[in-house]
Structure formats: structure tokens, C-alpha cells
Design goal:
With 295 residues, the protein is α+β, with helices and mostly antiparallel strands. It has 8 helices and 16 strands.
């Protein structure tokens, strides 16, 4: 699942889909106030009302830079912790990198959309003694922003279980942490061909990368839009701290996606890697869903 184009400076830019595995979350929690009779049409639950979700990262190869967006859940938590999330599948971060010809030591930058454990857990690992933690990407710079960092290190009771200190504090202690500037502009540039905008409904200052990729704009949707099943505006996760704000952010951005034919890269949709949307009489709705290599 790889696409390539040549940018103006004749440096090859590649985007690689990196599958880190699958997990399960309660369907009701993932769709908030929407009844099961509706959300189950797109996300079929198991007998325990759990739905399968991917933890899909994106690797940007641009010149000498190799940027990994999000890292999945990692493997250092306890057996009891993992038992709540039913990890399954044959994919892992390392095997997916290897399939593309890379190793984690090749990564120059790890961009964390936010610091919930399923997005940043793979950023930190045990050291060889298994009694301390270290960055899992020893040659990489890590990117967050000060507002989300404060939110994660001084968590509110609603999100406390999603912000695990062992995933977060060792990044800062390593000296490899960098800050993305938060300003009043809607978007800010981070890397060549990569801008981000900040969405606050799910968690404070979640960063959504927008990648200029040839004639396309690829948007890494993170938890602003977990799956195609979340396109209708009321379909908002129970995990979101400000659900009404999520609805407003979704409406604004989905309108922009429909107007400009953005390709939305879906981190958590277990079936669809990408989608586009269109305006309809019922609002913005799914236009096409497809794998990344069909671009």
C-alpha cells in the first residue's frame, strides 16, 4: 500500500500505510447517543457489543525525512490492561515497517496527533532490563504541543484512563520532545508538505495533519473521524470531552472536504483505509471508500 510522486525539487515522496494491529471498543461508547440499531449498520458488534477498530499509522517518506504519524498501542502494558481491548490480528508496527523496507531506527520524526494510549503507546518501550522506559524510536524527534501535553499530564477525570504517564513522561525525559506551535491561525506548517489544524472536541488541541501529495490533499483524520460510520454529524464518540464542539468541528471540516475533494485517511476504520465525501440533501455523506493504493 504505497504511492509515490515526485515533488518540485525532484525528491521522491512516498506515503506508506503502517498497520499496527486491531483492538475492540464498546460500540455504544464509540457512537455516543446514537442507538445501536443505527450504528450497527456500518459497524457490526460482537456478542459483547464490542466493535473492531484498526490502529493505522501513516509513514511519510520525503527526502531525508521519515515521519511516522501515531504509533498504535505498543506492547508494554500489562496483560490485564490489554485484556480489556482484545488486541488481535497479524499486524504489528515492526512487521509493517519491515514490509516497507524500514526499521524503527530509520524514523526521523514521530508525530503524535494526541496522547491517548492507542495513539502514542508504541512511542515508548521497556529498556533491556525491563525496569525502565525509553523511546522506541531512538533516532527520532517527537512532536506534540504544549496545550495537549498539559491536558495529558494534568488529566481531567473523564480522560485520566486514556493518558498513561508511562507513554508520555519518558518522551520529555529523553530530550527528544519538540513542540508544534499553537497559534490563532486555523492551520500551521510542521514539515515540508504537511500542515496541521487543531481540533478540540475530542481532546484539547488534537492535531490533524493535512498532507500535500501531488494533486491530492490527504487528511489524517485521527479521532475527529474514526470511521466512515461516523460521518453523520450526531455520530460522536462518548469519549469526546466536548461533543457539541466535535459536531461543529466535523461539520466545518467535512464541508471543506466535500468542497475540495480531500482524501480522508482513517486511522480506526477496520475495513476502509480512505474515503471521500460529498454534499447531499441530508448533509455531507460518504462518496467513495477505498484502499490507499487505489489513489
Amino acid at each position: 500500500m504505497e504511492n509515490t510522486y515526485h515533488c518540485e525539487k525532484s525528491k521522491r515522496m512516498n506515503l506508506h500505510v503502517i498497520n499496527t494491529g486491531y483492538f475492540k471498543l464498546d460500540g455504544g461508547a464509540m457512537f455516543g447517543v446514537v442507538p445501536k440499531s443505527l450504528w450497527s449498520r456500518t459497524n457490526e458488534p460482537d456478542a459483547n457489543n464490542m466493535c473492531t477498530w484498526s490502529m493505522r499509522s501513516l509513514l511519510i517518506e520525503d527526502g531525508d525525512r521519515l515521519v511516522l504519524i501515531d504509533t498504535g498501542i505498543g506492547n508494554k502494558q500489562s496483560e490485564k490492561f490489554f485484556s480489556h481491548y482484545y488486541l488481535h490480528g497479524d499486524h504489528s508496527l515492526d512487521s509493517s515497517l519491515a514490509a516497507k523496507g524500514f526499521h524503527r531506527d530509520d524514523i526521523t520524526d514521530v508525530f503524535l496527533t494526541h496522547l491517548h494510549f492507542d495513539h502514542c503507546g508504541g512511542a515508548i518501550e521497556y529498556d533491556s532490563s525491563k525496569d525502565a522506559f525509553r523511546p522506541a524510536f531512538k533516532n527520532a524527534q517527537f512532536w506534540s504541543n504544549k496545550d495537549q501535553w498539559k491536558w495529558a499530564t494534568e488529566p481531567n477525570p473523564r480522560e485520566k484512563a486514556s493518558f498513561l504517564k508511562e507513554n508520555i513522561l519518558p518522551i520529555e525525559e529523553s530530550g527528544q520532545l519538540n513542540w508544534v506551535d499553537v497559534n490563532d491561525d486555523r492551520t500551521t506548517n510542521v514539515f515540508n508538505n504537511v500542515d496541521v489544524f487543531f481540533a478540540n472536541g475530542h481532546t484539547d488541541k488534537q492535531m490533524i495533519p493535512i498532507i500535500k501529495y501531488g494533486d491530492h490533499k490527504i487528511v489524517f483524520m485521527a479521532d475527529l473521524l474514526p470511521s466512515v460510520g461516523h460521518i453523520p454529524l450526531p455520530y460522536v464518540m462518548g469519549y469526546d470531552t466536548r461533543p457539541l464542539l466535535t459536531m461543529a468541528e466535523k461539520k466545518s471540516f467535512l464541508d471543506e472536504c466535500a468542497d475540495n475533494e480531500y482524501v480522508m485517511f482513517l486511522e480506526h476504520d477496520s475495513v476502509n483505509e480512505c474515503c471521500t465525501v460529498q454534499h447531499t440533501e441530508k448533509g455531507v455523506r460518504l462518496k467513495d471508500a477505498f484502499s490507499f493504493d487505489q489513489l
